[in-house]
Specification:
Blueprint: E1 3-7, H1 14-23, E2 29-33, H2 38-45, E3 53-57, H3 63-68, E4 73-76, H4 92-109, E5 114-117, H5 122-135, E6 144-146, H6 149-158, H7 160-163, E7 175-177, E8 184-186, H8 199-210, H9 212-220, H10 228-245, E9 251-258, H11 265-272, E10 276-284, E11 287-291, H12 300-326
Parallel strand pairs: 1-2, 1-4, 2-3, 4-5, 5-6
Antiparallel strand pairs: 7-8, 9-10, 10-11
Helix pairs in contact: 1-10, 4-5, 5-12, 6-8
Bound molecules: 1,4-dihydronicotinamide adenine dinucleotide and oxaloacetate ion.
1,4-dihydronicotinamide adenine dinucleotide binds near residues 7, 13, 33, 34 and 150.
Length: about 325
């Protein structure tokens, strides 16, 4: 039996992500929680003829506790999105507190659940989640993930004219580092099956992967950021975690993890000087089984990208850790 929970389920990402989870035959129970509108979203989705039993909760009547109790997978897209002119870090002021509060409840009511953090800035909200879980004495680094799958999905899509595959997802295009601007590092030298990016297209392609989010924010013109592609990416990652937890072998996805707590992570922590980093992770019965180091043999161009990434990430991580340490529990 798999119980999945979406926190922020009535939002732009939450609704289509809940739809995909409702349609997924691997999910037996689906609980939707938001501060507004979840009864309506749950009623609507409940008419879909699929496996999952669906329930919707609001904060009243112990809604969060009821939603989380018995959860195996908790996905968090709760929080405000960007408007044109904002960076993801501008969301910290509001979203840091939202994520901290929700993870405190997860620590209390679903301490063994896999936690998938979508809320931005991911580079800081995941360190916040880790600190909250540590303080509650329930931190299992193998079960906490920052969802960076949208960067991978974009990289697969934007390079499709060179990979030549019919289904863009059939090419593996690793994207590592963090989830904002220059902290996003596509490693085109590590694609498989192997293909070449023409030298005169390299910079533009790297830039498009790094700033793909801005492309959508601009196009939506004040109405928010990526929601549908994020729901696709969030579902892809949640499904991977669920399949691996049921025993499927060989599933690898890049994700932002606490390196010292995942096998193989120490080597990457040493190379980058960072505790949190997105890298291809082998998923298994207990979550993140192995962090795979793909830093060896990167090109000179990629080394430069990594330098900028590490500089930016360091500050984002520290900001999250400091916030969690210095704000009282809810
Ligand atoms: N990791 C990634 O790759 C991506 C992350 N994002 C981030 O995802 C977040 C959500 O984006 P959207 O769905 O577009 O925003 P949205 O505003 O449409 O939805 C957010 C939902 O969160 C709910 N919410 C607020 N506080 C809450 C709380 N304490 N408990 C439960 N629910 C709460 C709101 O009521 C709303 O329904 C943003 O922070 C955005 O930046 C967006 C795209 C990609
Ligand atoms: O750009 C944003 O603010 C939303 C996001 O994280 C993305 O689309 O990658």
């Amino acid at each position: 039996m798999v119980k999945a929970v979406v926190l922020g389920a009535a939002g732009g990402i939450g609704q289509p992500l809940s739809l995909l989870l409702k349609a997924c035959p691997l999910v037996d129970d689906l609980a939707l929680y938001d501060v507004v509108n979840t009864p309506g979203v749950a009623a609507d989705l409940s008419h879909i003829s699929s496996v999952a039993k669906i329930t919707g909760y609001l904060p009243k009547d112990d809604g969060l506790k009821l939603a989380l109790t018995g959860a195996d997978v908790v996905v968090i897209p709760a929080g405000i999105p960007r408007k044109p002119g904002m960076t993801r870090d501008d969301l910290f002021k509001v979203n840091a507190g939202i994520v901290k509060g929700l993870v405190e409840s997860i620590a209390e009511f679903a301490p063994k659940a896999f936690i998938l953090v979508i809320s931005n800035p991911v580079n800081s909200t995941v360190p916040i989640a880790a600190e909250v879980l540590k303080a509650a004495g329930v931190f299992d680094p193998k079960r906490l993930f920052g969802v960076t799958t949208l960067d991978v999905v974009r990289a697969e899509t934007f390079t499709q004219e060179f990979s030549g595959v019919k289904n863009a997802a059939d090419a593996t295009v690793p994207v590592i580092g963090g989830h904002s601007g220059e902290t996003i590092v596509p490693l085109f030298s590590k694609v498989s099956p192997s293909f070449q990016i023409p030298a005169d297209r390299y910079e533009a392609l790297v830039n498009r992967v790094q700033f793909g989010g801005d492309e959508v924010v601009k196009a939506k013109d004040g109405a928010g950021s990526a929601t549908l592609s994020m729901a696709f990416a969030g579902f892809r990652f949640a499904e991977a975690v669920i399949k691996a937890s049921k025993g499927e072998k060989g599933i690898v996805e890049p994700t932002f993890v606490y390196l010292p707590g995942v096998a193989g992570g120490d080597e990457i922590a040493k190379a980058t000087g960072l505790d949190f980093f997105s890298t291809p992770v082998e998923l298994g019965l207990n979550g993140a089984e192995k962090a795979i180091n793909i830093l060896d043999g990167v090109t000179e161009q990629e080394k430069k990208l990594l330098e900028a990434c590490i500089k930016g990430l360091q500050g984002n991580i520290e900001k999250g850790v400091e916030f969690a340490k210095n704000s009282p529990p809810k």
